[in-house]
């Protein structure tokens, strides 16, 4: 099984009946949809048209698609109307994708507006779960989403080096 599929499978197993779950756009979160149980009722909030369309055949999952300006590179919405809409959401968990995880730079991505949206989505969830493939560890992109303490859980495939492992442990971030 590929790294992204393994991470996605672990992430899907964290969802519980009745939760309000924010799912970020991205390839790993897209893979996560294939592992969602068809008999589990919960609500998905997403700013990704791709994620919303991927949930059409899940009759027990309510889908709230947050609109805004479409950022075509990542297939997610951004902008003022999107930020206003998410201010009305109180989610249990947010599954966030990033392009970099670094002990001092924190969680990063390659687009400024996308970084602001990811931070805002995280602020609307009781827990933020960051899904990270190995190539994104110990790297930093141009725009900061937030410090490592933004996450409650990090899902990775493989072993973490000592520095990043200690940085996560000191901030009481669970690693799956």
TrEMBL record:
Tell me the first and last residues of the signal peptide.
none
Q: What are the top taxonomic ranks of the organism?
A: Bacteria, Pseudomonadati, Pseudomonadota, Gammaproteobacteria, Enterobacterales
Please state every residue range assigned to the domain named DeoR-like transcriptional repressor C-terminal sensor.
Answer: 3-157
Checking InterPro entries in the record gives: Carb_Metab_HTH_regulators (IPR050313), DeoR-like_C (IPR014036), NagB/RpiA_transferase-like (IPR037171)
Tell me the organism.
Rouxiella badensis
The protein's superkingdom reads: Bacteria
Enumerate the SUPFAM superfamilies for this protein.
NagB/RpiA/CoA transferase-like (SSF100950)
Protein name, as recorded: Transcriptional regulator
Alphabetized, the UniProt keywords read: Repressor
């Amino acid at each position: 099984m590929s790294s992204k599929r393994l991470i996605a499978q672990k992430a899907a197993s964290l969802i519980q009946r009745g939760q309000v779950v924010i799912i970020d756009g991205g390839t790993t979160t897209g893979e996560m949809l294939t592992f969602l149980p068809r008999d589990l009722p919960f609500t998905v909030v997403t700013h990704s048209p791709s994620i919303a369309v991927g949930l059409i055949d899940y009759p027990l999952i309510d889908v709230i698609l947050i609109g805004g300006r479409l950022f075509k590179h990542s297939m997610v919405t951004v902008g003022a109307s999107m930020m206003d809409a998410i201010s009305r959401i109180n989610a249990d968990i947010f599954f966030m994708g990033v392009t970099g995880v670094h002990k001092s730079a924190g969680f990063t991505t390659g687009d400024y507006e996308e970084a602001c949206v990811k931070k805002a989505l995280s602020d609307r969830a009781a827990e933020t779960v960051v899904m990270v493939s190995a190539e994104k560890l110990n790297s930093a992109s141009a725009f900061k989403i937030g410090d490592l303490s933004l996450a409650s859980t990090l899902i990775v495939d493989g072993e973490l080096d000592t520095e990043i492992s200690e940085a996560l442990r000191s901030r009481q971030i669970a690693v799956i």
